[in-house]
């Protein structure tokens, strides 16, 4: 997909298993919405093919639309309409809609009362958007940043609901830029950046890290009270062994990734003692999806920099 | 963290029958139109004020419009034509402009309602609002002493005028809503309405405009005004004016089809 000469989605190839939750993750402008809207039939791909439930989203629109649920990124309702009126209206376009009172109760829409849509909070508008996507009892739902603008309570409710959908056999495709959301919910995560897929896998596969096979990886974050002395990264790496990765995050913090090994933490702490740096915090944990994401997008940026030079 | 299946969301997709979808869409749009204060002003309050003001003031100064008819019999059909125009053109254009802005059309584009169903719903909604207008303006006209030509010819001629006038103005309204931004649509639709109200031969008959009347009769407003007046004064369809409306409808539909963007 190209917009005004700028490639928004380029050679993206992904497929989604039925009855699963797939997260499409990426920074703003990565091409997440464009990808989704191509599946929803709003955009025609300039190259390549898209099949949704085996149907062409443009040519087979009539058959496809009743079977999918779509939650747009914001808006999508008359400015003067009340939440329940809007939900009831969408439900009337479907043959076997869900009970709208049940749905409203689950998503806390009853609190909207007679307030017109334009005066609902961002979170309320989002929840109504989700309700509209679900009310027709679709086989497949596309939700574009479902929890953007929601409070933590609303986010929990939404996650619960999406898991329940999966349990009932509904396929869910969501975009998000909350890594936590992808990690919590998704069976499969596709990370895209600048219209290209840069990593795919289950959250576990992705956080296990590249090239480490089945062996578990541990991450240690070290934050110190004053800037590291010169050469600190290299000297810590030597102390820990060659198969360890040490990244200087800023002048006072480093990330150490290596084999999960009970001695790692002890070695880091001994290194601090020997080099006369005072640790402010030393935390051990699994590599988070955020680490993966920053690594991947950071890497991509570097390679492109080299190409341009 | 697998959640237990509740069966509440087990897929059971399907479209409602198209007629049910269209009726739902029409009722929803009509309801929103009648609830909106500005729209209501345009649809009912202004026409009623024009009617009452025109008839009382005209009688007080012994106004002669050059037609051999009581003033109320001339003005009531004119005001009905004005009401049809305000709903089919101004209200529709403004509503559609904001629907595009707020992503309503996009949202409905992902629902089972096909585009032709959306259009049919809009036309039906206009019909509902026009029915309300007809009752109110007709009642006010009666109070002022309006005596329309009775009989089947009147009903048929009036129905044809409403149908053709709605088609012509609705297609032009959609054209405006499709090419301009929502705020610009609001301004343009109101401005055109005011210009046609003043100089479009819709409320006042062509004879009141002198030589300019020959130009005004080719305007959609003049043609609609004449068609409604002919229906209630003579009880027959004004074929020539209906033809003019048809030309405008074809023109408006062609322009709309070429330019309208659903998003």
TrEMBL record, chain B:
Broad class of where this protein is predominantly found: membrane
Subcellular location: Membrane
ABC-2 type transporter transmembrane domain residues: 73-256
GO molecular function: ABC-type transporter activity
Pfam name, any one: ABC2_membrane_3
Any one GO cellular component localisation term in the record: ATP-binding cassette (ABC) transporter complex
Keywords assigned: Antibiotic resistance, Membrane, Transmembrane, Transmembrane helix
Gene Ontology terms describing biological process: response to antibiotic
Residues that span the membrane, as ranges: 40-58, 78-98, 119-144, 156-180, 192-212, 242-260
Membrane-related topology note: Multi-pass membrane protein
Protein name, entry field: ABC-2 type transport system permease protein
The organism of origin for this protein: Nocardioides albus
């Amino acid at each position: 997909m190209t917009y005004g000469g700028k490639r928004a989605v380029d050679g993206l190839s992904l497929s989604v298993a039925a009855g699963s939750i797939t997260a499409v993750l990426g920074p703003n402008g990565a091409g997440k919405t464009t990808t989704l809207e191509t599946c929803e039939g709003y955009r025609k791909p300039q190259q390549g093919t898209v099949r949704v439930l085996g149907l062409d989203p443009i040519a087979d629109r009539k058959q496809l639309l009743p079977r999918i649920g779509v939650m747009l990124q914001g808006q999508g309702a008359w400015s003067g309409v009340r939440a329940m009126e809007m939900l009831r209206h969408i439900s009337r376009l479907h043959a076997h809609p869900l009970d709208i009172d049940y749905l409203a109760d689950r998503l806390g829409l009853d609190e909207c009362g007679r307030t017109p849509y334009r005066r609902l909070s961002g979170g309320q508008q989002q929840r109504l958007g989700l309700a509209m996507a679900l009310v027709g009892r679709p086989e497949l739902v596309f939700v574009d940043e479902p929890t953007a603008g929601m409070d933590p309570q609303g986010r929990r409710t939404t996650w619960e609901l999406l898991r329940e959908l999966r349990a009932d056999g509904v396929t869910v495709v969501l975009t998000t830029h909350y890594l936590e959301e992808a990690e919590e919910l998704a069976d499969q995560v596709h990370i895209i950046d600048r219209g290209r897929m840069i990593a795919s896998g289950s959250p576990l596969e992705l956080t296990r890290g590249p090239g480490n096979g089945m062996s578990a990886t541990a991450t240690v974050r070290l934050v110190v009270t004053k800037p590291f002395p010169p050469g600190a990264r290299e000297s810590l790496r030597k102390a820990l062994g060659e198969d360890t990765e040490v990244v200087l995050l800023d002048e006072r913090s480093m990330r150490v990734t290596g084999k999960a090994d009970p001695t790692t933490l002890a070695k880091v702490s001994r290194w601090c003692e020997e080099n006369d740096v005072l640790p402010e915090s030393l935390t051990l944990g699994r590599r988070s999806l955020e680490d993966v994401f920053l690594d991947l997008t950071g890497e991509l940026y570097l390679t492109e920099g080299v190409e341009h030079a | 963290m697998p959640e237990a299946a509740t069966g509440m969301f087990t897929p059971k997709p399907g479209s409602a029958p198209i007629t049910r979808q269209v009726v739902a869409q029409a009722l929803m749009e009509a309801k929103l139109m009648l609830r909106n204060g500005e729209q209501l002003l345009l649809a009912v309050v202004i026409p009623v004020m024009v009617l009452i003001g025109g008839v009382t003031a005209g009688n007080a100064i012994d106004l002669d419009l050059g037609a051999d008819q009581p003033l109320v019999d001339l003005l009531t059909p004119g005001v009905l034509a004005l009401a049809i125009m305000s709903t089919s053109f101004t209200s529709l254009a403004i509503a559609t402009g904001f629907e595009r802005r707020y992503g309503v059309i996009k949202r409905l584009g992902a629902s089972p309602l096909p585009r032709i169903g959306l259009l049919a719903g809009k036309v039906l909604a206009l019909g509902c609002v026009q029915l309300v207008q007809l009752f109110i303006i007709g009642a006010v006209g009666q109070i002022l002493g309006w005596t329309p030509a009775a009989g089947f010819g009147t009903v048929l001629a009036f129905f044809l005028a409403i149908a053709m006038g709605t088609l012509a103005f609705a297609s032009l309204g959609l054209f405006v809503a499709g090419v301009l931004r929502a705020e610009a649509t609001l301004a343009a639709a109101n401005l055109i309405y005011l210009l046609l109200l003043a100089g479009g031969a819709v409320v006042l008959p062509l004879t009141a405009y002198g030589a300019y009347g020959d130009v005004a009769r080719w305007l959609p407003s003049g043609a609609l005004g004449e068609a409604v007046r002919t229906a209630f004064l003579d009880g027959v369809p004004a074929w020539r004016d209906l033809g003019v409306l048809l030309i405008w409808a074809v023109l408006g539909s062609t322009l709309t089809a070429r330019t309208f963007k659903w998003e």
